[in-house]
Design goal:
By secondary structure, the chain is mostly helical. Helices cover 79% and strands 0% of the residues. Keywords: Membrane, Transmembrane, Transmembrane helix.
């Protein structure tokens, strides 16, 4: 390690080197590396700058994420409300369909089917035919009474 005198060290620390007599003096001692003086705040300032930048960027990132989360939550809430409205509409349609189905079932139970209609039609034909036969019988009877009445009128006897 090289030991320099106080004057030589002061001369080396000047920004502008000059070729004065002080600098030309050589130091007596061993040869080695010169101890370099590091700036005290340089390393700390770098760490402080890094930490300051990191904290600013972290804060901005958190703010951005919160805003994005707020927007996404709002969209999700709007979607849920639309879903609830759609579910309400579907429920009302289902209630109407159930009401219509109940009405249809009651009408089916009350309505006549084809076999019932054919059965009633056959019975009506029988009733009509029976009435027609009775009418013919009645006409025959009335005709007989008219014949008897005409005989009585012509003969005068009963």
């Amino acid at each position: 390690m090289l030991h320099l005198s106080k004057i030589t060290r002061q001369a080396i620390s000047f920004k502008n080197f000059s070729t004065s007599a002080i600098i030309k003096q050589e130091a007596v001692g061993t040869v080695g590396n010169l101890p370099t003086k590091r700036p005290v705040g340089g390393f700390r300032g770098g760490i402080l700058g890094f930490l300051f930048g990191f904290s600013i960027s972290s804060g901005l990132s958190i703010y951005y994420l919160q805003q994005e989360n707020k927007i996404a939550s709002g969209l999700l809430l709007a979607s849920i409300e639309e879903l609830q409205q759609g579910t309400g509409k579907i429920s009302s349609h289902l209630e109407r369909l159930q009401f219509v189905e109940n009405e249809l079932n009651s009408l089916k139970n009350q309505s006549a089917i084809k076999d019932d209609v054919l059965k009633v039609r056959g019975e009506m034909k029988k009733v009509y035919d029976g009435l027609h036969l009775e009418l013919l019988d009645l006409r025959a009877h009335v005709w007989g009474v008219e014949q008897d009445l005409q005989k009585v009128v012509k003969t005068g006897k009963l």
